[in-house]
Structures are given as C-alpha cells and as structure tokens.
Amino acid sequence: MHIMEGFLPHPWWEAWYALSLPVVVYGIYRMNQLVKERRETLPLLALAGAFIFVLSSLKLPSVTGSCSHPTGAGMGAILFGPAITAVLCLVVLVYQALFLAHGGLTTLGANLFSMGIAGPAVAYLIYRSAGKLKLNFYISIFLAVTVADLATYIVTSLQLALAFPSATGGVVGSFYAFGAIFAVTQIPLAILEGVVIALIFKYIIQVKGDVMVRLRVIDEKRLGELKGAIPA
Amino acid sequence: MHPSILDDYALKSPLRHKNSRLKLAIVAAALLVGISSTSPVAPLFIALTMSFASIRLGEVPAGFYAKLLAPPLAFALFGTAVILLFFGSGPEIFSFSLLGQSLGATVEGAELSLLVLSRTVSGTSCLFFLALTTPMVELFALLKGLRIPDSLVELSMMIYRYIFVLLEVAISMTHAQAMRLGYDGFLRSIRSFSMMAGTLFIRSWEQGERLCTAMDARCYDGRLSLFEEKRPVKAQELLGACGYVAAIAALAYLTRGTALI
Predict the structure, then answer these.
(1) Portion 186-225 of B in contact with A at CB < 8 A
(2) A119 and A71 Cβ atoms separated by less than 8 Å
(3) Residues B225-242: pLDDT tens digits?
(4) Does the first or last residue of chain B, that is N or C, have fewer Cβ atoms within 10 Å of its Cβ?
(5) Model ipTM value
(6) Who's near A130: CB < 8 A, 6+ residues apart?
C-alpha cells in the first residue's frame, strides 16, 4: 500500500527517511559482503528485484474489484532475508514511483519502512519460527506472507494516523479510521497474496527445488519430503 | 494489457536532450516547496505549471496525461476524505450519521484536506514531469556521480534492464493461459496466476545464471562503465530554472497560512 507523493507533511516524511536509512545502509553492507564472497550474487539479486517489480505491476485476480497488486516483498524476505530485501524494495519503489506513479519520492522513506522493512521483517520472523515449530512448509509461507501484508497495512495506517491525528480521538482515533477504511480491501488481499505466494513456492519446488536449497530456504531433507508429497 | 510504463514516453520526449541534473534539481526544488507550503495556493500553482510543462514542452498528449493523473487523484481523494471526516475542530460544515456514528466535517478539517490534496497533486505532477521527460538511463550516470554506492547503482541498472524482459515473458504467458481459459473463474485465475509467477521466477533465475556467465566472459568486475553524454546547461535555461524556483518559493512564502475556504 503506497502512500502518495506529497501526502505526508513536514516532520513525518523526513522522520521515516531517517528510520529507513540505517536499514538500507546495513542491507547494502550485507549485499556487498555476499557479492565479495560469491560474485554471481549480484545478477541473481537483480533478477529477483526485477521479478518483484513485475509481480507487483501485474494485477491479481481480485474479489473486491479494486486494483490489487501482490507486493512480493514477503517472498523476497523468505528467499534473501530482510536486510537485502530492503535494498531490493528501495530500487523497486523508486521504479514504481517513476514508471507507474505508485508512491512518491518524498514518501519513499515511509513506503520503504512499511513495505520494505516492517513487512519483510515480520515475514522472515514468522517463516523462521514456523520452521522451528516444524509447521507444514506451505502453511508457514502462507502465514508469513499474509501476516507480513497485514503488518504493512497496520504500519501504513499508523504512519497516516501519526501525521494526521484526529481532533477527538488523537492518533488512536485516526488510526482506527484509516485502518477501518483500508481493512475493506487489505484483509482479503493479504489472504489472497498468502495463497498465491504459497502456490508459487509449490511450483518452484516442483521444478527447481535446488534453488531453494542453495538459498538456504529449506534443507536437502525437507526438499525431498516436499517433492515426495507432491504427486508428479 | 501492456502496463503503460512512463519511461517509454520519456525516451520520445523532446526534453530528453536537456541536462538531466537541471531537470532533477527543478523537480526536487518544486517537490520541496510544494510539500512545505502551508497554503494550497503554491502547490496548485506548481501542479499547473508542471502539467503545462509536461504537456506543452514535453509533448505528452493531454488526454493521456489526464488518464495518468486519474488513479493517483482518486486515491488521494480517498485519503483526504478520511482527513475531512476525522480531523479538525471549529464550526461544522455538515454532519451525518452512519451506522450509529456521527461523522462530520469542520472548517479546519476541510482546510487541511484541501491542503493535503493540493500537495499530493503538486507532488504527483512533479513526479510525472521527471518521469515523462527523463529516461532512467540518463539518471544512472547522475546517480553514479551522486556518490551512491556502486553496487546499488549496478543492481538498479540490472533490475531496470530485466524488468522489460520479464514483463514481456509474463505477458505472453498470461496470454497463453487466457487462450486456454486459464482465467475463467476466480479459483482457476488464482491457480493460473501462481503458476505463471512461479514459472516466471524460475525463468528469471535461469536468466540470472546465464547473465553471470555472459558478464564473466566479458570480464565484469562489479562496475559497468557508463557513457554519459555531455549536455551543457545553457545560461538561458539556468536562468529560467532559477527564476521558476524563486517564483514558487516566493509564492509559497507570501501565501503562507492562507486558506481557500
């Protein structure tokens, strides 16, 4: 969910920039480390970034009829971890602002924080803890992506509420207002995206499961179990 | 169904051949003035002048421009409606009750929502001006000059290149699925969409591996050198840009705190 260019007033857009910046710097540092270790990382990450952009610019079949785009950020977090996903999301968000007029440059910090940092961090945490709990692989992906989407939506509502507190209820009041309005489209979309990403992982594992092992998303043993479970 | 990407228009724009630093500077200044203005007058003026510049100087068809502006505008109206209903105190303009809750708009709320709306429109038109006149390829060289880490610029360049490749693959796959009634019905659409996206990921991964080999074969060392065309700024253009920025800054200063309601 993108916040429009010019929507956030003075201290807030700068504040979200300040919050996002350290994460991006750390992400770039991590990325440089990986690139130094294995040189093929950069092209592969670039293709993953392009994939996220394309995924987010395609329309999902949607119930509500609204314009709904899967974000792909949750998927990025599961594949590459949250720090690198933040860097990928930064590039994708700039392109979305410049090519599709989604989001903007002054609101880039806020959008990056909600979609590229908070969401992926939640997705990563849930996926990793679900793995420890030995939950079904696809259910854990569904949970990670759906909850990450919801987290993004809650953070966006909070960002708007902090910038525009309501006269009677303050920040909390307007948080409920923004939250309630966006809930209509965002909750079904979050569930839909969870289902879609889980299915995407199913197809990837069927055809090219070794990529998942190389990215340390799952180990060799788990891959064998998952492949055995899918009737060919 | 090809998503319209603004970059396509930028490549054809007559303003493409102007200095990209100058364009970026004008847009950045206009964005900042628009967002820090406390009255809707200056943002609306910026929106008008930026749209005029895109349409007249950038030769973007007016109808197409209006179509571009519609979805962000609709979203902005949606957001400002919330501000209108929940913000502000003072004399009420109107109120009604919905599901047992009374909602209403006050003068203060109306002023704020108008201000936010004007800032959004102004910001969006600045963004459109940049997007419609400056192709991304021109900005890469500029980014390298701005001391942005090399790896980030390299990553952006490769992402940029492959967006178009993958988009084409995605579109032809979707067409093929649609031909076979893959998008008939909701559940089937979800299945088809996921299958397409999964295949797209695998395709992009393999493409990435091939890209590594190709770049290694050409001795890639983590830095693609760019050829930046020299486009000197004419004194006239610089003067015009400074004049414009000074004018909008002065307008924002003079009309500070002015409300339209």
Answers:
(1) 186, 189-191, 193-195, 197-202, 204-205, 207-209, 211-212, 215-216, 222
(2) yes
(3) 777 777 788 888 889 889
(4) N
(5) 0.85
(6) A139, A140, A143, A144
